[in-house]
């Protein structure tokens, strides 16, 4: 069923580090080789062996309209015909920026970059430049890309400051990153009592998507806002995953919290390499060329990518699909929980907007420590079972599943039939 993909992976490994250009794509966690994708359309993705899958990865978030939307293709092609990189300003950049600024009260000015990693890294540099402080606080299990300051994990119990979570990150860099537990406001308060005047910013995924989907508890984000205000630290919302995905705006609108800096990516480029960070003018003016915080990019604001982003946001604005998306994820999760219950599978689920996760553990996790208790063997069985039944989900328990506006009720019903089949098999 997957022979050609296996051969292609062996070939890729000869030329590309680990055969992939981003580690999770290798399917290492689930002990398989990746599928090589030939094409995708709507809610479906097709591999080189000729298999068709209902896609719940959706390029890890950007494809909220489903794959290869015709209107987006046409508008992107128009831009392509005019040339595809000038290294000079274009109207398209201003047009995409206007749409973002209009969607977010917290943003007056943006700067475009090419990846969420760059955007989060630059947002932190900006916060450090603005506050003249070096330390940042991040949450265990939240992912903000792979810049040095953010590849940091919790140190020993007695130490607040982080340790590198990757080889190659100097301990001296990691020392400037303080780790806290998601949804633990008391822990954050304790840290601020000791180190508040050194903390430039708190960075958080307001709805965590990188340990599976975990929502903030009531009052948690509001508490962070007031701690930051009290100590003169900036609050950075990393909405790379949630921006334009949970609503035409971000999680900040759902939870009614105004961050100082917002980081966006994924949907904002519609599948092209676009991300950005934005804030009020008072903060953004610290950025070069107006200010002294340096940040740059040869391909930043690429016109073809901008056109794809504009077309994507315009469709989202026009269709306003968010309520329907949320209805569908909530249905998927509640039906899967019903099946888990029926077949005695320990599981819990979470959904918000078009994001959802199924955790193989009884109680819903509320932070990274909790989610570690999930049964990864069950997850692997579930993943492989789905793959073999034509359903493509992220190959890790610690990721969000995404649906798109092209996922039909039939897609969802077919998925649930596959899930029931797998649970039955596991239970027998
Ligand atoms: N921030 C969040 C919340 C993400 O989910 C990701 C990627 O998944 C990033 C940042 C990094 O973005 P990129 O992979 O475009 O560098």
TrEMBL record:
Recorded coiled-coil stretches: none
Where N6-(pyridoxal phosphate)lysine occurs, residue numbers?
266
Query: Some GO term, biological process aspect, for this entry: which one?
Result: protoporphyrinogen IX biosynthetic process
UniProt-annotated location(s): Cytoplasm
Family annotation (Pfam families):
Aminotran_3
Cofactor(s) listed:
pyridoxal 5'-phosphate
Name recorded for this polypeptide? Glutamate-1-semialdehyde 2,1-aminomutase
Q: Which organism is it from?
A: Hippea maritima (strain ATCC 700847 / DSM 10411 / MH2)
Organismal lineage? Bacteria, Pseudomonadati, Campylobacterota, Desulfurellia, Desulfurellales
């Amino acid at each position: 069923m997957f022979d050609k993909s296996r051969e292609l992976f062996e070939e890729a490994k000869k030329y590309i580090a680990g055969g992939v250009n981003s580690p999770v794509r290798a399917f290492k966690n689930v002990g398989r080789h990746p599928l090589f994708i030939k094409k995708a359309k709507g809610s479906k993705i097709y591999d080189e062996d000729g298999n068709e899958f209902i896609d719940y990865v959706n390029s890890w978030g950007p494809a909220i309209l489903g794959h290869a939307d015709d209107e987006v293709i046409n508008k992107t092609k128009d831009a392509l015909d005019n040339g595809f990189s000038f290294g000079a300003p274009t109207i398209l950049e201003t047009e995409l920026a206007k749409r973002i600024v209009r969607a977010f009260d917290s943003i007056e000015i943006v700067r475009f970059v090419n990846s969420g990693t760059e955007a989060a890294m630059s947002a932190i540099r900006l916060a450090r430049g603005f506050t003249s402080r070096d330390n940042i606080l991040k949450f265990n299990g939240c992912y903000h890309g792979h810049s040095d300051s953010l590849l940091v994990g919790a140190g020993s119990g007695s130490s607040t400051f982080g340790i590198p979570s990757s080889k190659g990150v100097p301990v001296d860099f990691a020392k400037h990153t303080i780790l806290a537990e998601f949804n633990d406001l008391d822990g954050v308060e304790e840290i601020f009592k000791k180190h508040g005047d050194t903390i430039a910013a708190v960075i958080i995924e307001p709805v965590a998507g990188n340990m599976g989907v975990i929502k903030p508890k009531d009052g948690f984000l509001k508490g962070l806002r007031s701690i930051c205000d009290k100590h003169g630290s900036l609050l950075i919302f990393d909405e790379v995953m949630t921006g334009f995905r949970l609503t035409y705006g971000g999680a900040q609108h759902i939870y009614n919290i105004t961050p100082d800096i917002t980081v966006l990516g994924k949907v904002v480029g519609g599948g092209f390499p676009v991300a950005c960070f934005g804030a009020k003018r008072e903060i953004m003016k610290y950025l070069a060329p107006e200010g002294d915080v340096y940040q740059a990019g040869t391909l930043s604001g690429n016109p073809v990518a901008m056109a794809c982003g504009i077309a994507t946001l315009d469709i989202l604005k026009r269709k306003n699909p968010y309520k329907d998306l949320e209805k569908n994820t909530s249905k998927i999760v509640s039906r899967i929980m019903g099946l888990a219950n029926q077949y005695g599978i320990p599981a819990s689920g979470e959904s918000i907007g078009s994001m959802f996760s199924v955790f193989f553990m009884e109680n819903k996790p509320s932070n990274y420590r909790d989610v570690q208790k999930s049964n990864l063997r069950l997850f692997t069985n579930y993943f492989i079972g789905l793959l073999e039944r034509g359903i493509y989900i992220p190959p890790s328990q610690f990721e969000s599943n995404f649906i798109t506006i092209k996922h039909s009720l039939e897609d969802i019903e077919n998925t649930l039939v596959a899930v029931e089949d797998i649970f039955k098999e596991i239970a027998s």
